[in-house]
Structure prediction request, 304 residues.
Amino acid sequence: MKTHDLAGRIAVVAGATRGAGRAIAIELGARGATVYGTGRSTREGRSVMDRPETIEGTAERVTAAGGTGIAVRCDHSKPNEVAALAERIRSESGRVDILVNDIWGGDHLVDWEKKFWEHPLGDTLAVIRNGVETHVITSHYLLPLVLQSDAGLVVEVGDGKGQVPYRGNIGYDIVKSTVVRLAESLNAELSDSGAMALSVTPGFLRSEAMLELIGVTEQNWREASDFGGGFFVHSETPHLLGRGLAALATDPGRTRFAGTCLGSWDLMHEYGVVDLDGASPDWGTVDAKARRSIVDDGFPDVGA
Prediction:
């Protein structure tokens, strides 16, 4: 039975084209939220990621799940486009109750085989701009709308909790570590306002791109159980994080998590959610060991 405990709530999922962002948008919609899903890939043209998923496709899935999906093309590295997004939301909805910042789009810039001094400097800097500057720009323009909510929630989506092992590429490691710290910093500045911020991380994601890379589908993914040093058996769909985050958004006592970083597994245990197939994969039990093994194998990006 569907609940619509987020009916009337306005959410923005920045980076909602695919992966965790798409699933978060859908699961917020499943609880009745109106979701502005942003990204660069539209039916009129793909981003440099050159993937088939689009923001329109996400919006349609949000609406089909029970919410209201609104697709907005936005390049979050461009302040003028984010400012226009904020102005549109202000005009149409007046506030943002839930802001989820899941912008990344740097996979094509990371060469996992090269050491920092060998890695093209331009690509390293672009990774940092893609994964950090976009989050700063987005928060700058949208936080004033969050402050118009009676209980605003800001969520930074990263890859790994605070003390995970080195992620295998300095640019990538800087980005994902910074996202966690950014949530702490935002929460400190929001603490007197009634709003709060935190960060979340998925486990090993069976995202669209990951399944394609391995050559399996969601239906037969267990055939690749030896992938990632055997840790792929602990993987999860992006919807586990999406369901946990949607449950958190409805929790009147969620301020107890303000400023923290929660894994999809933490949210799973806290709120009793399960993955799409009914499973309860607990990546937290293998996270550190798996990351060390996968980095050694030259494939550290478990959250792709």
Observations:
- The two ends are 31 Å apart (CA to CA).
